[in-house]
Design goal:
This protein has 108 residues and is an alpha+beta fold. The protein is built from one helix and three strands, in the order αβββ. The protein starts with a helix and ends in a 6-residue tail after the last strand.
Amino acid sequence: MLLTICLLGLPAFLDVAREKQATARAAALERAVKTYYTQEGRWPRHLADVAPLLAEGKEGVTSPWGTPYQYIVVRDEKAKVIPYVPYIWTEREVDGVIHVYGKKPPKS
């Protein structure tokens, strides 16, 4: 019986772990994108450009579910130092609800 309880709880545990990993990868990608900007003086065209800056390398630009992270740089009219903000996120649908991991740009 204990084994059954453990096996039933395993998928939920793995799901929470993947969600945390997805959020952590998005944060690592944001740091890498900002580092790239500082070093190169321009924003990367693709997230693959920052893979060498990630501890996970190329694997770090893919979500735990195997989908690539989305990336866009948006102009921020209120910013005083760097007038652009990078947004990096991935999405996953669970029971008809879209879950976002990372930072998605605000709707205009």
